[in-house]
Prior knowledge:
By secondary structure, the protein is an alpha+beta fold. Helix content is 34%, strand content 14%. The protein has 15 helices and 17 strands. A hairpin with a 2-residue loop joins strand 10 and strand 11 (283-284). Helix 1 packs across helix 6 (175-184), helix 7 (188-211) packs across helix 8 and helix 9 (299-318) runs antiparallel to helix 10 (325-342). The radius of gyration is 25 Å and the shape is globular. Residues 286, 369, 409, 411, 451 line the site of manganese (II) ion (MN).
Amino acid sequence: xxxxxxxxxxxxxxxxxxxxxxxxxxxxxxxxxxxxxxxxxxxxxxxxxxxxxxxxxxxxxxxxxxxxxxxxxxxxxxxxxxxxxxxxxxxxxxxxxxxxxxxxxxxxxxxxxxxxxxxxxxxxxxxxxxxxxxxxxxxxxxxxxxxxxxxxxxxxxxxxxxxxxxxxxxxxxxxxxxxxxxxxxxxxxxxxxxxxxxxxxxxxxxxxxxxxxxxxxxxxxxxxxxxxxxxxxxxxxxxxxxxxxxxxxxxxxxxxxxxxxxxxxxxxxxxxxxxxxxxxxxxxxxxxxxxxxxxxxxxxxxxxxxxxxxxxxxxxxxxxxxxxxxxxxxxxxxxxxxxxxxxxxxxxxxxxxxxxxxxxxxxxxxxxxxxxxxxxxxxxxxxxxxxxxxxxxxxxxxxxxxxxxxxxxxxxxxxxxxxxxxxxxxxxxxxxxxxxxxxxxxxxxxxxxxxxxxxxxxxxxxxxxxxxxxxxxxxxxxxxxxxxxxxxxxxxx
Length: 493
Ligand SMILES: [Mn+2]
């Protein structure tokens, strides 16, 4: 199948607006602290890397905070925003004449000024001089540098460095929390890019579903996804490494890495769990579809799938500004536990199970995370919020209340992971909840995850992901029905 989509024009106004938003937030912060509205926000873009000791250049992807503010695709840049005047300045690397021989045209500074809609462009060897000349205050100019913790990776962003920085005052604490918070609430232009990444990725997921057959290799489905999103969406990058897990691999949460490279042969009767999302102009998508490899759900597969779908749908129906994400995680757990009770996998009382954290045995990961320029977009834990410590809840990437303009994934899952099931089934407080006989049937089942990307609106949320979700929709699409389904086959309408 070809595609109904084509890559949209990228509006650089998006980054102008991002800079204006940051400037306003910094002004508010400085005014509140009775500090002068002076100095420069100063960031260093990413640098190109070679493969180990070789001259093989790895494909460059811009650092995310720099991408947010400037949208610059090329490596080796620095960028400044004058806090006083709001003027934006880019610093481009001065390329050697040889560059034109091997890499192509050396673009003039005026090109970057126009392309990235900034006020001024200089070379990176002119940073100190330029900032001194444009500084409005007396004494050494102040630089607001980016330094702070990424609460998902536990890594720190590296503050900018350049020759002559010792002739400036530096502030390492103000910028990071403010800029991170700017990224949490998406503008309409940002949402449009995330929507395109969702549209092309949704279409690619459907294409993968249609082509899945027993006997294929997992990487062949990965390849179909990559081809579709690149061929028709111009998406050169994915938001993350594709997880193409089938059979018991679907219980390996981050399957697909170099040591587990999507290389299993699909068997008739397997469940597939495909977690794949394309990125378009830095903005990503994060989508998981689970379905039977042979296109027909068995009753056990429907039982687990519908348990997860009921959690997915219940959360989406409850989401709106003011709702706390921990409550949404618990709602998802409750729905899954209720379904597993109905399916005779668990016995007892859901509240008692919740108190013993039985939900985390089946869903050890968090319900979802912010999505934007990073798959795990930052801002989940502003400094007043702490991570929780209980099983399952401790894996949450945010415990915040929802706000209008957030984009967050909803990705409940139910997995049969021996490393979690065995101790829970043997534990003195939890053993009684498990129907040991029924559970034996699910050994090697793997797991199900259903993941959509949600945009929080003024009074609810909008699902940006458009893939078949009901079991009958999946079966129809895998049997060759068009997607979206025709009205007469769409039982929901
Ligand atoms: Mn995700």
